[in-house]
Design goal:
single chain; 3 helices; 64% helix; CotJB_dom
């Protein structure tokens, strides 16, 4: 039993060491660009909540639409540089499959 656990631990360490290096070499750029996207997402959530109670506020609707467009631009630029933000068909992938090459959440 102990021999089996040691073997499992050794295999697990080898698997971790085989994980490809992140496609994103510059984690600072990755974090800065992801933070910018999160700021826009936060503003969109807040505007959504506001517009739920103020649906006729034309200025808020315009601001929402501008931010939604900005979010699309930021997300597209981010994905071209760092790989997909979401899976399940929300984003395209280059070859080879990029999802496994992007940093894990605890790496950024």
């Amino acid at each position: 039993m102990a021999e089996r656990n040691e073997r499992d631990e050794r295999d697990e360490r080898q698997d971790r060491s085989r994980k490809p290096e992140p496609a994103t070499r510059n984690i600072e750029d990755h974090c800065r660009e992801l933070l910018e996207l999160q700021k826009v997402d936060f503003a969109l959530v807040e505007l959504t909540l506001y517009l739920d109670t103020h649906p006729t506020d034309m200025q808020a609707v315009q601001q929402f639409n501008q931010l939604a467009q900005r979010r699309q631009q930021i997300a597209a630029e981010f994905e071209m540089k760092h790989g997909p933000l979401l899976q399940f068909g929300h984003s395209f992938s280059r070859f080879p499959w990029q999802w496994v090459e992007t940093p894990w959440p605890w790496q950024v």
